[in-house]
């Protein structure tokens, strides 16, 4: 039995004793017991909120020159949440076999960790912070919904309106994250490429590693939005290529690009695996909680 389960049983027994004596547990005791049962979730929520703060400070123009380290703090916070989520999911089922490694590699938290570590070694990239910021915003809202549902579903009227607005926009936010992650692949060469052998090698290696990251994202069983965006991108590229009056060289390059993307992605991961807008996205056992 784990430490968290021991604490949960002790707190539940204490509450039952209080109720049996005719004294319902105090509000403070209830909140404390809830925190102990879900302390990793609250730590994750705090780190996600820190990521939002770091990003906002970094993107403010007159603070950017003085607070450039906020960019790296954002990446560190994103790495910390990814490691904590991996620990929470897999610490009781660690196995040294192929099936476990495959399960670990297909988890979104592993992809997020790779994303953060990949860009930590480079100067600040444009738009790298946007997926982190939007993911953090979704997760902080998700934790807020859980707290309101747990303690006072009828209160916090204005806050609940904000959560409902975020939930309505969750599909669009997840699509923006996927589009940004795909777009970053095309700006890496322009950010790293220089007229030297080392610059060319660095850009090539980074594009190669980032492409692996996108393939892992595409094959994710938890988040279908990357393959949705990829499918729409390939469809639009095929339409533009077929209808354009460009030269044969440009058309051949476009067809080669389409064939490359199709060969690098897994056809078993279907674009039809959509998350429908009417399905709740926020809450303890809903879509965002699994990302």
Automatic annotation (TrEMBL):
<feature type="transmembrane region" description="Helical">
    <location>
        <begin position="42"/>
        <end position="64"/>
    </location>
</feature>
<keyword id="KW-0472">Membrane</keyword>
<dbReference type="GO" id="GO:0071786">
    <property type="term" value="P:endoplasmic reticulum tubular network organization"/>
</dbReference>
<dbReference type="InterPro" id="IPR051645">
    <property type="entry name" value="PER33/POM33_regulator"/>
</dbReference>
<dbReference type="GO" id="GO:0016020">
    <property type="term" value="C:membrane"/>
</dbReference>
<feature type="transmembrane region" description="Helical">
    <location>
        <begin position="171"/>
        <end position="191"/>
    </location>
</feature>
<feature type="transmembrane region" description="Helical">
    <location>
        <begin position="113"/>
        <end position="137"/>
    </location>
</feature>
<dbReference type="GO" id="GO:0061024">
    <property type="term" value="P:membrane organization"/>
</dbReference>
<dbReference type="InterPro" id="IPR005344">
    <property type="entry name" value="TMEM33/Pom33"/>
</dbReference>
<dbReference type="GO" id="GO:0005783">
    <property type="term" value="C:endoplasmic reticulum"/>
</dbReference>
<comment type="similarity">
    <text>Belongs to the PER33/POM33 family.</text>
</comment>
<feature type="transmembrane region" description="Helical">
    <location>
        <begin position="197"/>
        <end position="215"/>
    </location>
</feature>
<protein>
    <recommendedName>
        <fullName>EOG090X0CJA</fullName>
    </recommendedName>
</protein>
<keyword id="KW-0812">Transmembrane</keyword>
<dbReference type="Pfam" id="PF03661">
    <property type="entry name" value="TMEM33_Pom33"/>
</dbReference>
<keyword id="KW-1133">Transmembrane helix</keyword>
